[in-house]
Amino acid sequence: MGRDHVTPHVFDRLCRISDEMTTNGDRAGLRAAQRAVRIAGLLIGPLRCESCQRAFPVKGRKSTRLARGLARLAAALRLRGRHDHAEKALVAAFRMDPSDEIRGDLYRRRALLRVYQERFDEALADARAGLRMATPGHRRGRALVAMGIVFFETGGFADAITYLEEAVRTLDPDFEHGFVAGLICFANALTKGTDDDVRQGIRVCSEARARLRPQHKMHRAKLWWVEGLLLQRLGESRRAWQALTTARLALIALNAAPEVGAITADMAQIASLPRAVTHMCHEAGRAIPPYHPLASPLRHLRDAKPPQIPTAAGVLRDAAGRLAVCPPAY
Question: What pTM, to 2 d.p., does this model score?
Answer without folding.
Answer: 0.70
